[in-house]
Amino acid sequence: MNVDMFFQNLQSVQDRYEFTPRDMWNMVETWVPTVQKPVKVVARKGSKQIGKITSAERGTLVTVAIAVSAIGNAVPPFLVFPRVHFHDHFLINSPLGSYGAANPSGWMKESDFVGFLNHFVKHTKCLKEHPVLLLLDNHESHLSIDGLNYCKANGIIALSFPHTALIGCNRMI
After folding, report:
1. Residue 16: which domain range?
2. Prediction pTM value
3. Rounded to the nearest 5 degrees, what angle is found at the Cα of 30, between the Cα atoms of 96 and 69?
């Protein structure tokens, strides 16, 4: 039922705005660790004991949000670091055009989502006169009044995917 409602909403939005594939975007968030674990361990033949080969640091998780269009174009990553204050050096060696924010949890918060939307608008160049469709999940940070107002003011038609824990499909049009 939720999935059917989502596709009905998607069809309604498509009928109203007639988006081309280049104007249809999917936003995805994930977390990446700051310390990697190796897949293989290399040791001298015959060794009875192998020492640690990775940093003893456990690392932390950084939230990464990206948006990809239906034709495969991508907005550079938006990263949320688990720190009180963001510093530009956090983005050293990140992909060109990446942008970042920080909050103590490292999770996407409402203000971080508005920051992502600003980053998204900068790279997609969407306007009220030429809107784009942004598909996203039902995470609470994506449902803020500030975020929805930003979308409306900048030509972003946001439609959320259904979530099995929710009744009905949250529609943000």
Report:
1. 2-29+59-160
2. 0.79
3. 60
